[in-house]
Amino acid sequence: MHASILHILNTTKTRVQALGPQISSESQKMGFEKRDFISAVAAAKADGRVPVIAEVKPASPGRTFRDISPATAAELAWEMEEAGAVAVSVLTEPGVFRGSLENLDSVRNKVCLPVLRKDFIIDRLQLEEAQSDLVLLIAGILGGQLGDFVELALKKGVEPLVEVHNRKELDLSLETDTRVIGINNRDLETLEINLGTTEELAPIIRECDLDHGTRHLIISESGMNSVQDVRRVIQAGADAVLIGSALMENASVFDKTKEFVQGAGWRQ
Ligand SMILES: O=P(O)(O)OC[C@@H](O)[C@@H](O)c1c[nH]c2ccccc12
Asked: Where does the Indole-3-glycerol phosphate synthase domain lie (predicted)?
């Protein structure tokens, strides 16, 4: 693991331990209606949009994009929705990524799209502390506990998005009941990007689906800057893409999201 990721895992552990009792009482919140990500992807495909999960990302290791308050997060998410995004991802890790649970709540109250909580989940209490439609579970971090976390999320009615980066993590994820697999093109050890990761792993998922009569949704995550990049991973078998930095760097999040969603004409 890269030093910044190890640092996040340590601070997350301390934070969750300190917040323990408060989190369990918050989980009583009622009146939460889940938004279905799988049918949102199908709807996007049916009307010719490239399914883009657009990410509200204030910073990443070594880079700051924008200061994002809950009000700004809502504004950005609204631009993403208007531009045709299929879902919104919200970073909630408060240290290195400068995210917040307040940003997540604010986004979900503003838009009608499914919302993904993007964080480093290491403790089941974290599944109680926020309400989202999808939750990221990183196979490389959860290891042997992955299956339990997938079950827990499903039981809560939250769609797990299991993130993998190599064959070993993919095999682990295919043993769970997850319906959504994210292939991270970024190596969490070096933080380097290689879109070939999707080209390598997506066909393995498709083959497994054929063998078992299942149908996983494949999300290609990270490192896409152009419509050509998106085209490449969709052609490799991805159903959807997850894009953060390229949107945050652009002066107009609406314009950039729309460009990816429309695919600049390569989509018939
Ligand atoms: O900003 P990018 O390169 O478009 O990547 C977005 C997203 O995939 C990335 O933020 C991400 C993927 N997996 C994560 C796990 C934790 C934090 C962040 C991430």
From this structure: 10-259
| Distance from residue 244's CA to the centre of ligand 1 (Å) | 7
Residue 23 in this model has a pLDDT that exceeds 80: no
Here the ipTM equals 0.98
pLDDT recorded at residue 130: 86
Assess whether the C-beta atom of 114 lies below 6 angstroms from ligand 1. Answer: no
CA 34 from centroid of its chain's CA atoms: 16
The whole-model pTM stands at 0.95
CATH class as words, domain 3-18+35-262: alpha beta
Distance CA 61, CA 98 (A): 10
Enumerate the domain spans of the chain. 3-18+35-262
Best residue for ligand 1 mutational test, from 242, 249, 250, 256 (most atoms within 8 Å of Cβ)? 242
